Amino acid sequence: LGGRITRAIQQMSSAIVIDEKALNECLNEITRALLQSDVSFRLVKELQTNIKKIVNLDDLAAGHNKRRIIEQAIFSELCKMLDPGKPAFTPKKAKTSVVMFVGLQGAGKTTTCTKYAYYHQKKGYKPALVCADTFRAGAFDQLKQNATKAKIPFYGSYTESDPVKIAVEGVARFKKENCDLIIVDTSGRHKQEDSLFEEMRQLAEATKPDVVIFVMDSSIGQAAFDQAQAFKQSVAVGAVIITKMDGHAKGGGALSAVAATKSPVILIGTGEHMDEFEVFDVKPFVSRLLGKGDWSGFVDKLQEVVPKDQQSEYLEQLSKGNISLRIMYEQYQSMLNFGPLKQLYSSLPGMGAGMMPEGREKESEAKIKRYMTIMDSMTDEELDSPNPKVFDETRMMRIARGSGRIVREVKEMLEEYKKLAKSLSNMKGLKIPRNGDLMSS
Ligand code: GDP
Ligand code: MG
């Protein structure tokens, strides 16, 4: 998507006369690209209208950096669409919050309930899970298994068929046990059916949730808006979680879900395991949707913190895409050593959001140090290979043993490396033109 949008803008800015027609052609191409990324038709139209309001053709003709103006307009409009203007719900530790998950069958509710509970447990909450899904066979077993793995108390029944009764009992039990975050998992149906919505209404009325979280599979494409709206119309949805972003989905559905529910996205699911999720953050998400990192911020900061004569070399290394593990090692070292570089990396896609999340620097630092210890046990050949092949089990075991860590941690580090290499490959073509201004191409 990013490539296509960039090309469209490039084409326009190379036109001899930038007139209404050239801008329209550019916007039409962008429209097509966004539609292909599952951004809903009505939102794309809205975006197009807004961009035309922002982008003043007279300004464009006056020799301003047209590409930058249009790119920024697209970026900021997409960000606006993902921000419903109300803060995400945060449970309070001193009091009991009830959170109800809703969504179609297979959307990822049960999996995500556990992720949500696990995330808050790590933050010091006392979560509990209630299985109010009596529709799907094996639903309780699935929740029980997940909860046990995460060491989270759970409640459910094999025999009771009334979901409302189970939910009420479960919530009452955990309130008595002083849990501060009671999560009610509900059933879904394959389709949006009246019976499902009726059940959700009854459950909400009986358990009085502090927030209802709508869980949506990111791969449903253009159906996102209607689905989210259907749920919003029957229960007071207050937050959204988008799942399966590790798959082929392009993420445009998130914009639809926000627009239809007027609620913020709080998490995105990136895998089947309980630690495979990301706390949602608008700007990196839009960057990803556009297929690139948050350039503008990164480039500005690079100019601030890297000496001018080194900037070019620095960018070249980063933009090669297939970087060696040693470069990652050196980057980690800089992250730990230099204050300002921390900021630089926090704006670098792939490094930033995951490695140095705000307020969790200590944790991130420990992680970085662990990865560095692991890399200390690698051979030069392993570290310097420009594109390290997947390591086999024996190699990983040797590295784990050498560093006093376990194989899972070695794998985790290599995953982090792969993520970094992937996000850097999106930066290919980052150049410093002769006049010294950094820009992306
Ligand atoms: P529910 O019917 O809404 O409760 O959905 P489940 O939680 O049972 O999930 C349905 C399927 O999707 C399961 O196989 C999950 O492992 C899988 N799943 C859920 N979230 C994710 C995700 O973020 N990524 C991937 N790859 N799979 C997921
Ligand atoms: Mg389920």
Automatic annotation (TrEMBL):
Reactions that this protein is recorded to catalyse: GTP + H2O = GDP + phosphate + H(+)
Predominant subcellular localization, coarse grouping: cytoplasm
Key word Transmembrane present: no
Compartment(s) of residence: Cytoplasm; Endoplasmic reticulum
InterPro entries: AAA+_ATPase (IPR003593), P-loop_NTPase (IPR027417), Signal_recog_part_SRP54_M_sf (IPR036891), Signal_recog_particl_SRP54_hlx (IPR013822), Signal_recog_particle_SRP54_M (IPR004125), SRP/SRP_N (IPR036225), SRP54 (IPR022941), SRP54_euk (IPR006325)
CC per GO annotation: cytosol; endoplasmic reticulum; signal recognition particle, endoplasmic reticulum targeting
GO molecular function: 7S RNA binding; endoplasmic reticulum signal peptide binding; GTP binding; GTPase activity
UniProt cross-references to Pfam families, sorted A to Z: SRP54 (PF00448), SRP54_N (PF02881), SRP_SPB (PF02978)
Highest taxon above the source species: Eukaryota
Domain SRP54-type proteins GTP-binding as annotated: residue spans: 264-277
UniProt-listed GO biological process terms: SRP-dependent cotranslational protein targeting to membrane, translocation
Subunit structure: Component of a signal recognition particle (SRP) complex that consists of a 7SL RNA molecule of 300 nucleotides and six protein subunits: SRP72, SRP68, SRP54, SRP19, SRP14 and SRP9.
Family listed: Belongs to the GTP-binding SRP family. SRP54 subfamily.
Comment on protein domains: The NG domain, also named G domain, is a special guanosine triphosphatase (GTPase) domain, which binds GTP and forms a guanosine 5'-triphosphate (GTP)-dependent complex with a homologous NG domain in the SRP receptor subunit SRPRA. The two NG domains undergo cooperative rearrangements upon their assembly, which culminate in the reciprocal activation of the GTPase activity of one another. SRP receptor compaction upon binding with cargo-loaded SRP and GTPase rearrangement drive SRP-mediated cotranslational protein translocation into the ER. The M domain binds the 7SL RNA in presence of SRP19 and binds the signal sequence of presecretory proteins.
The protein, known as: Signal recognition particle 54 kDa protein
Species: Microthlaspi erraticum
